[in-house]
């Protein structure tokens, strides 16, 4: 199956989109403030490196080709 829509938040950065998968594991108030633990950020950066887009971590998702 090939997905046509990636369900990304277009105004968010690539890193923020990856981190959004961890929202359910932390208290709501921390997620509202965007306070992700360091280990989540490290995991997200490792995931971006695995798919060769680590250099795009701070780009908005709507700017990806």
Describe the structure.
Helices cover 37% and strands 0% of the residues. It is mainly alpha-helical. The chain has one domain (14-63). The protein is globular. The mean pLDDT is 90.
List keywords for this structure.
globular, 65 residues, 0% strand, mainly alpha, ATP binding, ATP-binding, nucleotide-binding
Task: Give the uncertain stretches in residue-range form.
Answer: none
What separation lies between the terminal Cα atoms?
A: 20 Å
Number of strands: 0
The proportion of residues in beta strands is: under 5%
Q: What characterizes the major β-sheet?
A: none
Structural class: mainly alpha
Helical segment count: 3
Number of domains: 1
* N to C succession of SSEs: HHH
> What spatial form do the alpha-carbon principal axes imply?
globular
Could you tell me the mean pLDDT? Answer: 90
Summarize this structure briefly:
By secondary structure, the protein is mostly helical.
Give the arrangement of secondary structure elements.
Layout: H1 14-19, H2 28-32, H3 38-50
